[in-house]
Amino acid sequence: MIATVTLNPAVDYTACIAKPLEKGMVNRTASEHITAGGKGINVSYILHELHEDTCIYGFSAGAVGAMLRAQVLSWGIRGEWLELEGQNNRINLKIEESGVVTELNGTGVSVPAEQIANLAEKLRVYGENDIIVLAGSVPRGADSRLYADIMAVLRENGVRFAVDAEGEPLRAVLSYHPFVVKPNLPELCGLFGVEITRWQEAVPYGRKLQQMGAENVLLSLGGDGALLLTADGAVWRLDAPHSEVVNTVGAGDSMLAGFLAGAAKGWAMADCLRLGVAAGSATAFAPWLANAEKIEELLKKLPYPQLVEGETE
After folding, report:
1. What pLDDT digit, counting tens, does each position of 52-70 carry?
2. Could you give the CA distance from residue 49 to residue 129 in angstroms, rounded to a whole number?
3. Helix (H, G, I), strand (E, B) or coil at 7
4. Are the beta carbons of 163 and 134 closer than 8 angstroms?
5. 245 Cβ neighbours under 8 A, 6+ residues apart
6. What's the pLDDT tens digit per position in 189-226?
7. Catalytic residues
8. Can you spell out the DSSP letters for 191-252?
9. Dist. CA 296–CA 277, nearest whole Å
10. What is the pTM of this model?
């Protein structure tokens, strides 16, 4: 089982406009769609497409929260929601213009400490062979160590953790030895205060994440594919396939989902990377999150990842 935790879920309202946005004027959409959003929710959607057993955990608040719950239910994915009184989940506005997406994300809910404790208690059912994904921003006013605190409560259960966070929340979890962390290049640069222009320059900083405690580091390079630094010292690289990029929202989440689907099956790390790149690219080439058919189609075309450091037996 792969459980995903989205502490700050949202409804994403995506508006596609055919003409340039005019400030101070009435602008009309060419098309629009409304979906449940949040990194963990995206990961579970792709896992479900790949026929992996998954469950979404998060906080539901107000009418927006009701919309979130209803859409997750319509996908056929199980959701375990803790309800918050007197609040509303956030709505994220995404404006897509000529393939470029501009985002205006809401602040989201404030979660009291007792509800965080209730969430951790719910997650105690997971143990050996299970994976828990901690993804996205922490709720308003929460301590940056929130993900680390959840891991501290559950680490004796033998569960493996995948963390997709940035800044201090990412730094704080490393001492608890997550199975995999998935920064993108800007997040890696921000964490270490550096500027990286070539993938080769990213490898030493991926190594630093491992020295700080991460077992594996999955580094999203956007259109340049991904790097995977594994616990056995290997560094694998795979270019992304070439096609028209339609929407990059959720591509990184899809990559993580593909990687974890392979890991849950017991695949070799390089094969997990290959499925991750296929899933991430399939989403980038689609109007929204990819379906299984598109992922499989790309997977058949992808070469085997290149080993750029380390050795294989």
Report:
1. 999 999 999 999 999 999 9
2. 20
3. coil
4. yes
5. 99, 223, 284, 285
6. 999 999 988 888 999 999 999 999 999 999 998 878 89
7. 253
8. HHT----SHHHHHHHHHHHHHTT-SEEEEE-GGG-EEEE-TTS-EEEEPPPPS-----TTHH
9. 11
10. 0.92
